[in-house]
Amino acid sequence: MTTATRTESDIRAAIARELPGVRADLERLVRIPGIAFDGFDHSQVERSAEAVAELLRGCSLDVRVVRSGNGQPAVIGTRPAPPGAPTVLLYAHHDVQPVGDLSLWQSDPFEPVERDGRLYGRGAADDKAGIMAHVAALRAFGDALPVGIVVFVEGEEEYGSESLERLLTEHRDEIAADVIVIADSGNWDIGVPALTTSLRGIVNCFVEVRTLGQAVHSGMFGGAVPDALTTLCRLLATLHDQAGDVAVEGLVRAPGATVDYPEDRLRAEAGMLDGVSFMGTGRLTDRIWTKPAISVIGLDAPPTAEAPNALVPTAKAKLSVRLAPGDNAAQAYAALCEHLRRHAPFGASVTVTLEHDGEPCVIDASGPMFDAAREAFRIAWDGVDPVDIGVGGSIPFIATFQELFPEAAILVTGVEDPYARAHGPNESLHLGEFARVCLAEALLLAKVAEVATGR
Fold first, then answer.
1. 219 FRET partner, CA 20 to 30 A, in 45, 69, 235, 370?
2. Who's near 196: CB < 8 A, 6+ residues apart?
3. What is the pLDDT of residues 60-71, one digit of tens each?
């Protein structure tokens, strides 16, 4: 039996030994409602950070809870590398999304419950399981870690990571690493691991239309005088062509993906109603990974129950624009503003206001560290080759990591699967897949050390 085989066997046994305690600690984290959004009890975010700090101290790391300005608390844990070994940064976040309508949850979102091999609870998948995958790998090695470690656990990722760039800059020397593992994505399917190699960027903005100085009688003036709500609807309709593709000139369309979504699977995961068709053209993965998307996610208009028979003078919509890999957020926002103003119906006044933006990213997933990650995944998933995937959502700070640490290999991994329902009611974690993620990360640390030291 080779040394490598024994090492893999030892790591597998160590992860199996640690998993019960890891799950118990995950459940303790899930019970903390650490929501960084305005209007929530931010003492719970503090409590969450302290719980993470305690877990990392238990792994013999030097730990600090840090923040920048009025930002939420992040946790940094470090342990120096053995002589000649590289340093690996392990990222996750401890804050969670609000729970939304409690009546849509089958159980208390902050009381973890297992059903059919899945652990249900807010943050069980996104991203407290990411934290615990890091902890599992560290516990598996104990004092015999083969690499240097930096654990960086953010406290406001779900709220937009407003202070993250400042934190990374302020602690740049402390968190510098050769390999960065960002555990905030997902796998291709249950039983099929993945590396995320592209993510879309984001521009969230408000568009307001004005046609009148005040509301006027809809019978006396309707038919000649445009109301703002109809005008806004017509303007929003110009954002897509007849097939449903984005019609804003100047937005980038990236090259197509190498895999495709089965239609029935995407329908099921999205909860599409019978008879509703997909929008856009091209392969489904192109539409959700490598092409831009524009969604209307909110409207300010009179509620139907209270609407008088009057022409509405002003109406406002919130747009979420997802940018294809290779686009630029500032240029995309400028193109959107130009489109909206140029297509204003009836000469209406159009005002566009930026809420926030974030850059897309593309990762060149080639080289020895990515080969090491793929081999670790292959072993953890019993011979199944990992898939390179894109993600339609946005993690803008990855571009910041790329800028601050241009020489580092950035591995975007995660614990989610297509049925995790992160951000929605009944979020859950597949416990079998979680065990594989923990094993894969521990194997990755060993293989990174092997690659760097030539052993």
1. 235
2. 185, 186, 363, 389, 390, 391, 412, 413, 414
3. 999 999 999 999
